[in-house]
Design a protein that fits this description.
Strand order of the largest sheet: 1-2-3
Radius of gyration: 15 Å
Shape: globular
Number of helices: 2
Strand content: 5-15%
Order of helices and strands: EEHEH
Number of strands: 3
Distance between the termini: 22 Å
Largest sheet: 3 strands, mixed
C-alpha cells in the first residue's frame, strides 16, 4: 500500500470484523478475504466433503459475520472494502493502486 501511494494506514483490530488495514482519516476499512474462507462468489470453491456439516456451518458463520461487520461499520460511518484473494493473485499492484486511488478520492472529498 505504501508503494502505491496510500499513506496513513494502520492495522487496527478493534473495529467490527477486524479489518486488515484501516485508513482512519477517511474511515476506510480494508478486508482481505480468502476465497475459500469467505465463500467468494467468483471462485465458488467447493466445501470439503469430509465433515461436511461442520464446514458448511463454519463457512456460513464466516459469511454471516462478514455481513454483520459490514453493516456495523457502515452504521458508524466507515466504508468497508473487500479485496479478494483471487484479485491479489491476479494483480497485486493493480489492487494496491485501486485502493490507493480510493483513499486519495476520499481524502479529497473530506477536505
Amino acid at each position: 500500500m505504501w508503494a502505491a501511494g496510500a499513506r496513513g494506514y494502520r492495522v487496527r483490530r478493534r473495529l467490527p470484523g477486524r479489518p486488515d488495514l484501516v485508513f482512519p482519516a477517511v474511515r476506510l476499512a480494508i478486508f482481505v478475504h480468502g476465497c475459500f474462507w469467505h465463500r467468494c462468489e467468483v471462485c465458488r470453491l467447493p466445501e470439503p466433503k469430509a465433515n461436511a456439516e461442520f464446514w458448511r456451518d463454519k463457512l456460513t458463520q464466516n459469511v454471516n459475520r462478514d455481513a454483520a461487520a459490514t453493516l456495523e461499520l457502515e452504521r458508524t460511518g466507515w466504508k468497508p472494502v473487500v479485496v479478494w484473494e483471487h484479485e491479489l493473485r491476479k494483480d497485486l499492484h493493480g489492487v494496491a493502486a485501486r485502493v490507493a486511488a480510493q483513499v486519495v478520492r476520499m481524502r479529497g472529498a473530506h477536505g
